[in-house]
Amino acid sequence: MMSQDPNKTQPEAPDTFQMDMERDDINVRDVHGAILREKDDPRDGYEPIPLWMVSIFMALVFWGGAYLAFFSGGFQADVFDPSQVAWGAGAGGAEKAAPDPMVVGKKLFTANCVACHQATGQGVAGQFPPLAGSEWVVGSDWHGDNHLVKLVLHGLQGPVQVEGTTYNGAMPPWKQLKDEQIAMILTYIRNEWGNSAPPITAEQVAKIREETASQTEPFTQAQLKAIPAVHFGGSAESAPPADGTDAPPEGGEPPADAPAATGTPTGV
After folding, report:
1. Does 200 lie in the same domain as 179?
2. Residues 76 and 163 grouped into a single domain
3. pLDDT for res 67
4. For 219, how many CA atoms within 13 A lie in the half-sphere containing its CB?
């Protein structure tokens, strides 16, 4: 093993304190300041929006407006109507198709009538009369189309015979519905569940609504039977009143010298 000579001069350790002092003499900030002056100041968040992005945004806005105009369904939340043209048929677009009364009538029936008369049109035994095959609906026997519209507009109370069965309840008036809605409901029930009868129009409902505007109470079967039956297909029949006497006109008693009722109805 080699021994070190104690008389040999050892190299001096570097003076770190002196080196730190010399480094402090260099102004680092000045050096980097010169470099930074050669570049633009940062401007994050101030750059202009690219033109291509603005173009895409405007195109999306235009497309969205056009889509709503053409397919808004009249801006009803439950309607999608691809045939609707916002610019009107006169601008070369297709005419809007008329609503199918069987489709709309079924929706209205389900919303307003199905609880009593049921989706099958069979009603509830002993409580609510059926509509399937009902003489009130299809206008057979002494029943007229005018009777059907009147009882829907103003309601029906007291005993009523349907297909040979007596029901004793009350049907509320539905005069709060629009003429078009009532017409579609009646057209639907007259052509569903095996029924077959001419459609009811909104004009026919409006006419009867106007003529019976003074009616404040629901009809009874006897009152309706005293009113001559009118079939909107064009034929009219006078039904004998329940007591066998001549049918008085609606809203009052017949005069003493009034002639006997004929086949021409006195009112709808």
Report:
1. yes
2. no
3. 82
4. 25
Which residues span the domain enclosing 125? 101-237
pTM more than 0.85? no
The first and second tokens of residue 150, run together, are 């009147």
Task: Measure the CA–CA gap between 67 and 85, rounded to whole angstroms.
Answer: 11
φ, ψ of residue 143 in degrees (nearest 5)? -80, 135
Domain boundary residue among 37, 60, 88? 88
The answer to whether residues 194 and 108 touch, using CB atoms and an 8 Å cutoff, is: no
State residue 199 phi and psi, 5-degree precision.
-70, 160
Contacts for 113-122: CB closer than 8 Å, 24+ residues apart: 113/185, 113/189, 116/171, 120/193, 121/189, 121/192, 121/193, 121/195
What CATH number is associated with residue 205? 1.10.760.10
Q: What is the Cα–Cα distance from 238 to 247, expressed in whole angstroms?
A: 8
Question: CB-based contacts of 248: which residues, under 8 Å, 6+ apart?
Answer: 226, 241, 254
AA letter at 249:
P
Q: Same structural domain for residues 175 and 138?
A: yes
Token reading at 176: 């709060």
Look at residue 47 in the predicted model and tell me its pLDDT: 72
Q: Which secondary structure element, helix H or strand E, spans residue 38, and what is its range?
A: none
DSSP 186: H
Q: Please report whether residue 26 resides in a domain.
A: no
In this prediction, the residues of the chain whose per-residue pLDDT falls under 50 are 85, 87-89, 91-93, 234-268
* Residues 111 and 84 placed together within one structural domain of the fold: no
pLDDT for the residue 251 = 41
Please check whether residue 249 lies inside any domain of the structure: no
